[in-house]
Amino acid sequence: MNYTHIVFDIDGTLLDNAEALITSLQEVMKEETDRLIPKEELAFSMGMTGEDTLRRLQVKDVERSMKRWIELLANYNHLVKVYDGIEELLKELKRQGCHLGIVSSKPREVYKNDFAPLPIAAYFETVVCADDTTEHKPNAAPLLKYMELTGAKAEEIFYVGDSDYDRQCAYNADIEFAAAAWNPKVAAITLMQLREPNDLFDYVYEEIM
């Protein structure tokens, strides 16, 4: 196979930002319910769109709560960091001629506010956010949208994510997938696990030379 397109999820894959996301969600729910929900009860939200998360939590006004979550999330940008080895990986993939993409459950507004200003954002040519499709992970739609935008075939794409939603999205799109196990919270969602970013070359290096 010829993996010329390497596509990444953001949360828990490129960025170590679970603490920021869940703490700000915890605040939203405290305002909504007057109850401090334990963080472990909110961990399910990683990999889901914000709207789907809030619906699952049965908030009364999803749109209003989503706007509030985005506001509060900005207070925790200091907790967010790029995983070690990611920038070096992206630089080498670009040097080898790979097209780099993002398929994320983030709303476009959050992407622009929180990810686009980071230096690593410049490595990515095609970005699919939650706003770009009506169906979301685990549905194949986000990766199919990437294929539509780039003209890439499924067999040319390798997708890296950290959640079972990511895995199912790739499976449903008939795209190869590996789990970003440099995130210590990644469960055994697939046999193909990348313990550190450079492990990706074990799967794609020969093909892109």
Structure overview:
It is a single chain. This protein is an alpha/beta fold. It has two domains: 5-16 and 81-208, 3-Layer(aba) Sandwich (Rossmann fold), CATH 3.40.50.1000; 18-79, DNA polymerase, domain 1 (Orthogonal Bundle), CATH 1.10.150. It has eight helices and eight strands; from the N terminus they run E-E-H-H-H-E-H-E-H-E-H-E-H-E-E-H. The chain has helices spanning 18-33, 50-56, 62-73, 86-95, 108-115, 141-150, 164-172, 201-208; strands at 5-8, 15-16, 81-82, 99-103, 126-128, 157-161, 176-180, 193-194. The strands form two sheets. A six-stranded parallel beta sheet has the order 5-4-1-6-7-8. Helix 5 links the parallel strand 4 and strand 5 (126-128). The longest helix is centred in the N-terminal third of the chain and has 16 residues, at 18-33. The protein is globular, with a radius of gyration of 17 Å. The mean pLDDT is 92.
Please give the CATH class of the largest domain. Answer: Alpha Beta
- The succession of helices and strands, N to C, reads EEHHHEHEHEHEHEEH
Going across the biggest sheet, name each strand in turn.
Answer: 5-4-1-6-7-8
Q: What's the domain count?
A: 2
Write the CATH homologous superfamily of the largest domain: HAD superfamily/HAD-like
What characteristic shape results from the CA principal axes? globular
Helix tally equals: 8
